[in-house]
Each structure stands twice: as structure tokens, then as C-alpha cells.
Write a structure and sequence with these properties.
Chain B: One of its GO terms (molecular function) is carbohydrate binding. Chain B: This is ER membrane protein complex subunit 7 beta-sandwich domain-containing protein. Chain B: It is found in: Membrane. The structure holds two protein chains of two kinds. In chain A, 11% of the residues lie in helices and 44% in strands. By secondary structure, chain A is mainly β. Chain A has a domain of 33 residues. In chain A, the strands form 16 sheets. Chain A has a six-stranded antiparallel β-sheet, with helices on one face. In chain A, strands 27, 28, 29, 30 and 31 form a five-stranded antiparallel β-sheet that branches. A four-stranded antiparallel β-sheet of chain A has the order 2-65-64-63, with no helix packed on it. In chain A, a hairpin with a 2-residue loop joins strand 21 and strand 22. The longest helix of chain A has 31 residues. The two termini of chain A are 54 Å apart. Chain B has six helices and twelve strands. Chain B is of the alpha+beta class. Chain B is rod-shaped, with a radius of gyration of 37 Å. Chain B has two domains: 123 residues, Immunoglobulin-like; 58 residues, no CATH class. The N and C termini of chain B lie far apart (105 Å). The chains are: A mainly beta, B alpha+beta. At the A-B interface, strand 1, strand 10 and strand 14 of A face strand 2, strand 3, strand 4, strand 5 and strand 12 of B. Strand 1 of chain A pairs parallel with strand 12 of chain B, so a sheet runs across the interface.
Chain lengths: 989, 204
Amino acid sequence: MAPPPRRLLLALVGFLAAAALATLAVAVYEDQVGLADWHQKYIGKVKQAVYHSQKSGRRRVVVLTEENVIASLDLRSGDIFWRHVIEKNDPVDQLSLSLGKYVVTLSSGGSILRAWNLPDGQMIWETNMQTSTASKSLLHVLSNNKVAKDNLVLVSAGQWIYAVSSIDGVISWGKEFTLDGLEIKQVTQSPENDIVYVVGIAGSSKLAVYHLNAKTGEIIKDIQESLPGGLCGEMLLGSDNRLVALDETRSALYIVEFKGESISYKKVKISDFVQDISGTVKLLPLMSNGIIALQSSSTISLLKLQGLNGLEVIHSFDRPAAVSDALTITEKDEAFAVVQHLGSQIEFIVKVTSDASNEIIREKVNIDQHRGSVEKVFLNNYVRTDKSHGFRALVVMEDHSILLIQQGAVVWSREDGLASIVDVMASELPVEKDGVSVADVEHNLFEWLKGHMLKLKGTLMLASVDELAAIQALRVRSSEKNKMTRDHNGFRKLLIVLTKAGKVLALHTGDGRIIWSNLLPSLRASKSGEMPSALRLYQWQVPHHRVMRENPSILVVGRSGADSVAPGVLSILDSYSGEELNSQRFDHSVVQIIPLTLKDSSEQRLHLIVDSNSYAHLYPKSLDALDSFVPEMSNIYFYSVDIQKNAIRGYSLQKSSDLNLDDQYCFGTKELWSINFPSDSERIAISETRKMNEVVHTQAKIIADQDVMYKYLSKNLVFVATVSPKAAGEIGSAAPEEASLVAYLIDAVSGRILHRVTHHGAQGPVHAVVSENWVVYHYFNLRAHRFEIAVIEIYDQSRADNKDVMKLILGKHNLSAPMTSYSRPEVMVKSQSYFFTHSVKAMAVTQTAKGITSKQLLIGTIGDQVLALDKRFLDPRRSVNPTQQEKEEGIIPLTDSLPIIPQSYVTHSVQVEALRGIVSIPAKLESTTLVFSYGVDLFYTRLAPSRTYDSLTDEFSYALLLITIVALVAALFVTWIWSEKKELRDKWR
Amino acid sequence: MSPRRGALLVLAVFLSACLDPAAADQPGSVEGYTIAGRIKIDAASAKGFGLPAKTSNTKVILNGGQKVTFARPDGYFAFHNVPAGTHLIEVSSLGYFFSPVRVDISARNPGHIQAALTENRRVLNELVLEPLKAEQYYEVREPFNIMSLLKSPMGLMVGFMVLMVFVMPKMMENIDPEEIKQAQEQMRNSPVPSFSGLLARANS
């Protein structure tokens, strides 16, 4: 045929491809922020809180959390003024305020001291110190009564003590004590003169007390004393020259008194004065006017020192309870708070140390039941208008949330457990019911009328504050995206998250609000002090046909201790309400959880839990489940990656023949294959598989020259990367010659290595994602000294000759042959690698409902942003000069590095601090996927990797469409009238 | 100070004033070097972007997270106790694109540090890190423009139709009636180029 039209067509296609490329970025306009996305900021469980002084006038509190965050919070609302997330390998131990304008933090075992500007959080200075490692570090800011320009900050760890100027971070003196094995336990300051007391222990029994000159660091006095019976290391030094220390067995207290040069001590047994004390005894850091607090596993006792003669119990509180530090209110007096549980309420008690038997305040506060018990309390006072003292306190709860209580009420609360998410899954919302009963209608009518009355009041500005809040709540509820029912597009879902504290929360995807929360009793700390750990979330029951009336449920698996051999625990929750339906404690450990595709007659998903003795246990434990499982048992294979032994093993199941004969739900495992990597040259860095629920639309890929390539789509494909032992460390540690990275593609059923490739001069950290028939992994190239992302695509060669049409017609093809791991298909592999600018924290790939939409990689960068990168940039068929046909197909010319388009950051201008994970959840609409990324912050958005081709965008202007139609109709009329007139005129002519 | 200490770049004069006292006072030498440098964000380049050019949340990252430090108000930063070798420094600052920097600390030649941007291989004489570009995270909304509406395919089509409807009859009117008649006659005389005619001609 004629060439010109063809050329025209090509040009058109090329133009379209270019246009498509230009629109690759899934950008948002600035005014669209918050329409489909939300961002929530958290800080984590508070471990230390320091209030601003009264004088500064600002109502703020600076907190340090277990997520390594320092933050300044507004005391009135709990909002974050500023916040810094410090890296995990630089743990911040201590926090203090200096000069009323700096926040001083001590991190990395007492070796890094930083000062932050209190109002805006800007770092002012940073000082490095050399200390003995692996010792508890202490920070003490010298209070200065005189009007001095500078304040010294004392830092001590191990045998070292430093004094640092708090203005510029210059070390004014440093001292290493010569006593062997000394560990400094406490640093205090004499209120009258410039003397610093340093208490430490050497070995297990030698007590050493030094008096130092605060200005120069000179030792003025040094007292050493050996205490018989040894010390456990916990001790408190009061300002009145008395010291209390626990002995080695934690059953007796030493009371030590210093008088001039002499030292005298007495040992008292705790059981002599405190009844029924059990478990590990701890000294709580409360010591003023001779009041100390002792914590045992069941009680907290307040004791008063009476010289050397002994102790007197003032009060005993049943745990769970918490005692705050002492807070100076007048020159002589100090106050402290105790919080204890009283049924469903908590009781907030404030006492002064000079008269500890009386209480200043005793208030009952109602709190949410799903917060667990009180863990910590931080007391603060304020001066009321009548000059009396008022008290408020920050209370840290078991689920990591913090509450501010004041005047018997919770002023605000923060759900900071969400800063430590362990696992995420999505769950559907209830279906909107069509049939509505009469009672419902009446109720609804009444509600509707009430709502309209409220709105009317609102517009007439007659509404009270409460009514305004009600109007706002109504608006939120009626707003389309926040409804509590399933929507047609599948955008509204529940994000169910499991936190480190063992709390399960459901967040609405519309606005991120918490729908329900449940602190699981099985994952709460027991009295004996063992800390359970939350592990994973799974879909337990998704009702279909028969059990449609039932609510879906989810499975939570955890361990009853931190150890991997600790017995496991299981809870099943209703995913609409969060109610615990069932909970169970295993008699075996949990090493691996395998959700099966099988279901029993009540639609419960079957799960296999493998314990540390390699037995597999079937759940749910019902005969029904067993019936559906046993026939399929011979088809079930699984593999385990043993990082310690540097091996991967594949297993099958068998009826157990030994030990657990009586337990028919327990199965033995048989090792089928194993791959042992040579430990001297390779260490397993990462293993990754395809997502279980991934849907693939096409098996084949049609390439430009009308050729077909068949994807090797196996659910059993495992990607494993190993690095050479020398390159296993950080980036600066290995030379290019001694570093190498080996990538493997392994079939998990047969143990066959499908592909192996070595990258010389490359090292970890490795991040990988496996989807369809490809793997994308990120590593560091030491030779170029840049990060690289490589892609491997794997194609099935055995199906490659199915191209003959005749064969297809005559049925002589093997396309209908099942994809199986039992056969050994010929595979073909294509790969390519590209430079990538940033370090990567997490990687994921978009998932859509049918798998038709093109994929995007979601890359969590070092800057805590999530970048959406089109898979087309990671196509091994890219070349420097693609042919015309390849261009038509949409192949992008090869460049050595991957482009970073700022508009394609899905997190736009926000950061998900301390990003840990990215989850992509398919919506019902094929073009759209829901992306949830979490770290200390949470971020959720909707993403359409190939634009919303199956629906009108929110951008679509219905008004313009209407106007156009109206204009056309008007034009039609006008022209009709004109033509009529013209005809008439013509006839008259 | 031991010979294996402090290796500052060209900024040594200033840096020694601000860092060295701290370093010199440290008892006992530290195994390693100090990498000190400065981040320079030009406030002018930030215009148009919603975020103020603040350094308070600028993080400087060594070797992909091995050490992380923050920039001071004046932009200076330092890493202490860094062993000899080749290291990578990344800067994370919202709104700016920084190239990672390759830093070589030589063990044989103490105090000698080399730095180069990995993105464009530019060698830095002094460790002053400047953003390669400001990042614009939002699409810029085009203001409503009547011309852009007209230039769109819809607009062009409408324009063409209007032209045909209103201008063509006028043109017809302007043509001399006799000329039209002539043209019509000509049309009648010459055979209509029909498809069958074309075929016949092709065969002949």
C-alpha cells in the first residue's frame, strides 16, 4: 500500500507515545492536596518529657520517644511544633533543657551531644566525645542560680565525665577516673556551692564518691568504700548526703550516709518492712526529702528514710501504677504524682514530699478502655490566678498513647502507637443495605430533620459550640469519601494496622480517622514481666455466598515473649467492630506463617504455622478444615530462609509419625532440597517473592516485530541476593575488589536455580521487589560509587514456538499445559541496570484489581519521600537508539540513570518520617491503586499509574460540559430562526 | 592531636575556629577523621515554592544512614570518627535536589580529602554542597486562557465550522453569477470522475 498514510499513522502514534510519556508523572496540583490523600504525624512512645519553665510563658513540653524522636508539643492541644527523627543507630538516651532556650540531647552511648533551639528546633551545635562504650550515659545540666551567661552540661558514661558549655558546645573540661572498671551511676550538684557529686561503682561492690569542682573538674574529695554483699547497680543519691542502693540480690537496701570524711552504712532487708514483695525489685528515680519509691512486680511502695535506722512505708499502691519524678514547687518542697487504676478510671494523686502521707490532689479521670494500663507519668505545675499551685500531667499508656490530664479530665490525647506499625492489611467496609426497615426510615427522617435544623442554625449563626461540632461531624459523615459503607470504586476501605504495643486499629481510608481500636489482651505484658511481640496480620474469613451475613474477620499472630521460641498467641477479630471473637495461646512457637488458598466450609482461610521444631500446625483446628486440607497436602510446599546458617531449604508436608501422634492437626515436614551458600564468599542479604494476591492479566508480551514472548509466571519464584561477607557492612567499609553481589532466581518447589548473576564491585543494602515475571533490585555500585537499580525479566522459552497460527488452530500447542514447577521449562532472561541517585528505604510495586494497568515502582527514598517510577523505565529492552517499531511500542531510549521527576513523588511535599514500609492495595476500579506508606508518620493516597482511564477525573469540569450543551442548543435555535427568516426572504424575492 | 586526626577541607580557617577547640580538648585520640563541610541553599532559588528555605530539617547522611547529622543554622555540618576509605554523603532537604557526594579519605596521605559529585562527576575543591535544582512537587495550574481554549482541538473544530457557515455563503455571493453558471456548465460537460470510470481507465 501507499507509504505516506503509514508514515502519517506512525507519526501520530509517536506523538501519542510522546504525549503519554509527558504525562507519566502522576502529579497533583497544589490545591488538590488533601482531597484524596492524608498525612498523619506521630512521635512514638514517650520515654522522657521536659516541660518549659513557667517563666517562658510558652506552654510547651519537649519529649523524647522510643522511636528516637525529639519533639516539642503544644500543651494545650498536643500539636507538634517541631520534631526531629534521629537515626536508629544513634539512639538518644537523655534529654534536658538548658538556659531555658536550648534542648540538649545525648545520644550514641554518651558520645554525641546536640543542642537544639527550643522555639523552632534548629540544631545549634553538636559535640562529639569519646567515652567508654556499652555503658549507660547520664546527662546533667548544672542549674545556675547566679546570673551567669553560660551553663555547663555534664555528660558522663563509664569512666568519663565531661563538662560542655551549653552556648557553643565547647568542652570546657573532661576527666577520666582512674579507678578500674568504674561506672558512673549518678551525677548531682550541691545546691549551695560549685561542687558536683559523682557516684559510681567499680566491680560489683566498690562504691566510689567523688566531689568535683564544677568549673575546673578538679577532684576535691574522693571516698571509696567496699560494701559487702555487692551492688546491683541501681542507686539514688539524695542532696542530703544520703545514698540508697539495691544490693546484688535485689532483696536488701544499703543506706549510706556521708559525714565529712567518714562514711557509714547500714543494710536493711526489704522484706522486713514491705509485706508480700515479689518479683524483681526496682528503685524508681524519686528521691527528695528522704522519700524513695520501690517497685516490685505487684506493688509500688513509697518509703521514707529515717536516718540510718531504717525505712518506713508511707503508702503502697497496687500495680499497674506509675510514679512521677519529683518536681520542685517551693524552695524546700517537692511534689510528685502517682497514677493508679480504679476500675475503668484512673486516679491521679499528687503529694508533696515534706508531708507524704497527705494528698494535695486526688482526681478520678475517665479514660478509653482500649488504652491498657498506665506506664509513665510526668508531672507539671502551673500557678493559678490566686497564686495556688495547679497540676497537670502527661500520662503514657500501655498502647503508647499519651494523655494530658488536668482538673480531672483528659485535655487531649495522642494515639502514638501508630508510630510503630508492625503490619498492615486492608479490609472492606460493610455493604450499604438496600432494604431499610420502617423504623429506620422514621429514625432517618428524624435525623434528617434534625440535621437540617442544625445546618439552618449554623447558617443563621445561632448554633452553640456543641452544635457547631455536631454540624462538622455531620459534614464529615455525609461527605462521600468518609462514608462507612463500601463504594462502587472500592476507594473506601479500612486499613487495619497492628502496632508494636499489640494494639490493632482500623483507619478509614477517606480521612485516616480511627474507626475502632483494640488492645489485644493476649499481646499485653503479663505480670511476670515478659513482653509479647506482635507479628503479623492475616485475612481470616472473607464471607461470600453461604456466610454472607457474617462479618469478615482478621487473624493476628504474635509471640508471648521476645524470644523466637516463645509460644505463639493468636487472636481473631471482627474487622467491622474490632471485637475479639476468639483468642488462643499455642503450645508451640511461631517461626513461619503460611496462609493457604484453601478455605473450610465456613469460609475460614486455612493457615499453617511452622514452629521451631519444624512441625507444621494447621489452623483453624476443626475437622472440617482438616477435610479440605488433607487431600491437598501433597501439593503443599514451602521454603525457609535461614540467615544464620546461610541456607535456603524447601520442605513438603507429611503425616507426622513420631511424638505428636495424638495431635492430628500437627504435621511433620520433610526437607526436599537445600541451597547452602558458601559462607566465606556469600551471605544472604535479602529474599523476596511475589505478593500472594497479585493478579496478572496477560501471559504474553507482544513485541514490536509482531513476535510474542511468554512471561514465566510462577508463584514459586524466589529472588535471593547474597553479598560477599566483606561487603555486608556499611558503604565505606569495603573496596570494590572484595565486594560482590550475586542475584539468584530460585524455584521454591524444586529448588532449581533458574538464573544467577554476579555484580562485581557491588554491595548492599539490597532492596528488591518481585512482580509478574520480573525482579527489580537496588544496590550500591562501588566502582561508580553510585546506587544502581537492576531489572531481571524472565521469559518462558518452552512456549516460544507457539507462534504458528496453524498449530494454534490444530491444537498442537502447549499453551493449555499448566504452569508447574515439576517440569523444567527453558527460561530466557533479560536484564539491565541503571544508576539511581538516592538511597532506598523501602520498595513496593503498584497492585491493581485485574493487573491490566501498567505498573509503577514505589520507591521510599532516603529523604522519606515515596517516588513513583514507571516500570517502563526499567525495561531490559531499552536501547540507546530504539528502532521505529520499538518507539511505537513505547520503549524509552536508554539513559544511564533513572529520571527523578519531582512531580512524581506521591508524597508531594510531605515526608513520611522514618519510612519503613509501603503497601499498595488494589481498588475496585482497575486504573487505581491505594498506596499507604508508614514509618513514624502515616501517608495515604490514591494513585493511577496510567491515569484514570476508566473514570472521569475529579478535575473534570461538569459545568463546562453543561455550558457547552446549553450553548449548542442555543446556537441551534438561533441558526434555525435565521435560516427560517432567510428562506422567507428568498421566497419574497 | 595525633597525626591521624582532623582532616578539614579548604574551609579549614573558619572550621578550625569553630571545631578545633572541641577536637583539641578531646583526651585520647579518636581513630578516624572528620569530614566537615557546608550546605548552601540559595534563598533566591526557593522562590515560588511553598516551603521557606530553612535548614532546620536538612539532614546530612553518611553512607546511606550509617551516620546522620543536621545542618547548623549557618549550614555547617561535620562527621566525626570516619575511617579512611571512600564514603558517600547524601543531603536530604525537602524542596531541593542534591547530588550525592563521593568523599575519599586517604589513609596514606593523612588529611587529604577528595570530594566529587556523583551525578555529574564534578570535583569539589571545598565541601560546599549546593542543590542542583529546586524541586517543584506540584503541577502548575495553567490560568484560564481564551486562546488556549481556542487552540484546543474542540476550539479549532468550532472555529472551522463557524468559518464554513458564515464566510462561505458570503464568498459565494461575491462570485460573479455568470462565472458560476460557466463553472456549472463545465461541470455538466465533463464526465463525473466516478469510481467505475476510474476503474475503466485503469483497465484500458
